From TrEMBL:
EC number(s) reported in the record: 2.5.1.54
Source organism: Thermophilibacter provencensis
Positions in coiled-coil regions: none
Superkingdom field: Bacteria
Domain DAHP synthetase I/KDSA: 10-248
Gene: aroF
Record's keyword terms, sorted: Transferase
Record's protein name: 3-deoxy-7-phosphoheptulonate synthase
One GO molecular-function entry: 3-deoxy-7-phosphoheptulonate synthase activity
């Protein structure tokens, strides 16, 4: 709460990458870690200016009959890529029993997915683990409820929480979710925690990801989380919203211009 904590929280995510307090970072990578293509995608993302690497190894899929991710092997691939490129790794943990594994592997930032935004035992467990947390807004979560989810993490002694707007469910069907750009200034008004925007899940379609990213940057997001894939038609998940490396590089050029202007 800004009333008791007026200064912005700055979170050290590893490899010297700070989020919050005027530092701006871009988290990029595929929706799912799929194998050897990870390092290629990560190199391209870094060359375009990404500062953190994302990828899902344990995937929260709507259907139990679709790929559930590579699991532990996916974490190893992420950590290898992160150490080669000196990029902190952000990856989703779904089960409180896996938190210890993620910490042991050296995962830099524990992502809590939208579907687990109110999984209170999981929130408490990542709170106890102490590593920085990227907390995604639940798909039907109000801003106040999101803040209470953050309190679950922080009440266990972990103040390193980033809040992520990733789109909410509304009556609109032309996009996968509705990007609540308002949440960015509202969260900055209410809290000292860094605010991250995810234009990929917010829109669901490659063609809308860049405009949403630009809006998020103009609205003051402290970081973006963007899905990038070198062959979206073959992606295990979320290919429809992936940017190719050239599209991502194009986005990064315009983001730099917007950052200079605001
Ligand atoms: C993801 O980042 O790939 C993801 C599953 O996001 P969300 O939890 O926001 O749907
Ligand atoms: Mn995804």
């Amino acid at each position: 709460n800004r009333k008791f904590h007026p200064e912005d929280t700055v979170i050290d995510c590893g490899h010297g990458v700070l989020v919050g307090g005027g530092n701006f970072q871009v988290i990029a990578g595929p929706c799912s870690v799929e194998g050897e293509n990870l390092i290629r995608i990560a190199r391209a993302a870094k060359a375009a200016g990404a500062t953190m690497l994302r990828g899902g190894a344990f995937k929260p899929r709507t259907s139990p009959y679709t790929s559930q991710g590579m699991g532990e092997r996916g974490l190893d691939l992420l950590m290898e890529a992160g150490s080669e490129l000196e990029m902190p790794v952000v990856t989703e943990v779904m089960d409180p029993r896996d938190v210890e594994l993620f910490i042991r592997k050296g995962v830099n930032v524990l992502q809590i997915g939208a579907r687990n935004a109110q999984n209170f035992p999981l929130l408490r467990e990542v709170g106890r683990a102490g590593a920085p947390v990227l907390l995604k807004r639940g798909m039907s979560q109000t801003i106040d409820e999101l803040l209470m989810s953050a309190e679950y993490v922080m009440s266990e002694g972990n103040a390193s929480v980033m809040l992520c707007e990733r789109g909410i469910r509304t009556f609109e069907t032309r996009t996968r979710n509705t990007f609540d750009v308002n949440a960015i200034p509202v969260l900055h008004h209410l809290t000292h925690l860094p605010v991250v925007a995810d234009p990929s899940h917010s829109t669901g379609y490659t063609r809308y990801v860049r405009p949403a990213a630009y809006a998020a940057v103009a609205a003051g997001a402290d970081a973006l989380e963007v899905e990038v894939h070198d062959c979206p038609s073959q992606a295990w998940s979320d290919g429809a919203q992936a940017l190719t490396p050239p599209q991502f590089a194009d986005a990064m050029r315009r983001i730099a211009l917007i950052r200079d202007a605001v």
